[in-house]
Amino acid sequence: MKKIFIVLVCLIVLSFDLKAQNFYGSWGYRIDGNYVTVYGDEIQNQNNSGRTGTLKIALWATDYPYTGGRISGYNLFERKLEPLDASYYYYDVSKTGWCTYPPEGSYSLTILLLEYISYDYQIVDYVTINGYTRF
Question: Is the pLDDT of residue 10 over 50?
């Protein structure tokens, strides 16, 4: 009985798809004309082994503050990052590129961390910026 219990516990723990990639520290953005810069302290891979899929950071504009799950809105900017080995991190992240503006209005902005998992990018962490930005 003890062996069955241990096997069940192991299966339950291993069946969870733990995503230990995350933003750490302060994150923000700066829009200057047609360009946007997304910047932050660190992106960490806190897994003990293995490697992440390809990562992306993105800036999205939504009608309401994003609180998790599927996102619906406007993708203003995104940049790919190479996968991270276990326990490695990117630090002093700063990525600049073309900003695709949403329709005129006020939006909540969210910085997303996405990872390529099972043939698609999935949101693994996010930072929702306080307040609304007018475009």
Answer: no
